[in-house]
Amino acid sequence: MGAGHAHPLYLPGSSAVHRLPAEVKIVAAFLAVLCVVATPREAFPVFGGYLLVLVAVWVAAGIPIRWIAARSLIEAPFVVLAVLLPFTGPPPTVEWIGLALSEPGLLGAWNILVKGALGVLTSLTLAATTPLRDLLLGLQRLGAPPLVVTIATLMLRYVDVIAGEARRMRLARISRGHDPRFLWQLGATARGVGSLFVRSYSRGERVHLAMLARGWAGRMPRLSEATATPRQWAIGLVPTVAALALAVSGWLST
Amino acid sequence: MTASLEIADVTFAYPDGHAALRDVKLCIERGERVALLGPNGAGKTTLVLHLNGILAAQQGSVTVAGLAVEKPNLREIRRRVGIVFQDPDDQLFMPTVGEDVAFGPANFGVTGADLHARVDAALAAVDMVEHRDRSPLNLSGGQRRRVALATVLACEPEILVLDEPSSNLDPVARRELAEVVLRLDATMLMVTHDLPFALQLCPRSIVLDDGAVVADGPTRELLADEELLRRHRLELPYGFVLS
Q1: N or C: which end of chain B has fewer CB within 10 A?
Q2: Does residue B242 sit within a domain?
């Protein structure tokens, strides 16, 4: 499954982690992130423990640490604000190379940074070991709202079709002398986006007709009877149980 | 024996008042391959959308193997009438070929090993078994057209309706599609502008113009009638002569 939908966050492989059913990995990742979020921010060693659990999963899945580190940079723009907290937070302050840093601000920044980073790393681990199509099938098996599953499934197919259409429209524009580098030609580009929307909308109507013609009744049919076995659930939730133990130890130690 | 498709005096006008179909009457027997010819705007696609109840006739009736196209029967009607739309990118909406072929039969209640067997058989009928796990995006135009055909074959329809099956195909893909279609043992209505394709595949043709049936007969005879073709804006390709 999923051939032809290799996304840049997926690392093909055949490890035990890759082979686990998507619904198991989704639940395991979601619960693990809940544990991280619920951990008191002062329980510093516990966060190191979470990282070790993730490293163990990466080793089992054969994901190089450099590969995942490069992709985790996606988090950077979202944590910029956290850097400001030590400068803008309330007293008491601590001296650090001539700067007065707010103690609650420092703790707040740490809280955002460490939980954000662990959340991103967990999501990246899920994405690296599960093709997009399988993620959607997993969500469907977990009982996600049918409308969401339908929209996401169709998007998976049509995002490339729409991108191709946009590419052809751009070629047609530049072949007739359009030079989108100049600011005053933005108008033509904007009209292009408008007509792309209209084209996509009418394609949507045609696709709906084609779906009706093949018995569409409002929800994506289940195309496979396969469900996760208790054994797969047990294996998949091992890292989550470790995360839960770490969270409990964090609560007890603070 | 009951006819596969019977259209009796069907009339339909769009909300803007444009009369798209006027008293259309035709009958297709089981096993027949019939071409539906006509210029742009003749009402061909409107007629096709009446066959599975996406549009409802304002007068007259459509029956498929004896079952009337009416709201309570729509599910069974849509199983019996397999429409292959003109643009495969509209027809193939699932992420992989296999899932797309499985979509129809799964909606009609086929599951498990039966579903798997249906998908296998449909893909084998169009020579596309090895492409089961690929995205339709990565297929050539001809392959997409054949998969689109498979998505409908998997529903085991009573009648197959192909809308402009040869449009945008290169000559080789067009020939391959013709070979696949000729191999199928199915009742078929083929909407097309491609008159040589109609001649190759369909012994009988119906000409629709301005919403009405204006000719119905053996394809070779109709296409040899230059006056008829000219009157209804149909034309054989350059250098193509039928006697």
Answers
A1: C
A2: no
- Enter the ipTM: 0.84
Option in B54, B133, B137 nearest A209 (CB): B54
- A178-232 tens-digit pLDDT: 776 667 667 777 878 888 899 899 999 999 999 999 998 888 888 877 788 999 9
What is the domain count for chain B? 1
> What is the distance, to the nearest Å, from the Cα of residue B201 to the centroid of all Cα atoms in its chain?
12
Strand partners, B187: B159
pTM for this structure? 0.81
Query: Residue B214 is part of which domain span?
Result: 5-87+158-231
Q: Is position B112 within any domain?
A: no
**B71 Cβ contact list (under 8 Å, min separation 6):** B53
Residues 93 through 132 of chain A touching chain B, CB cutoff 8 Å: none
And the tokens for B138? 């990565």
Residue of B52, B81, B133 lying closest to A3 (CB–CB):
B133
Asked whether residue B183 is assigned to any structural domain, the reply reads yes
Q: Whole-angstrom Cα distance, residue B195 to residue B39?
A: 11
CA–CA min distance A61, chain B (Å): 23
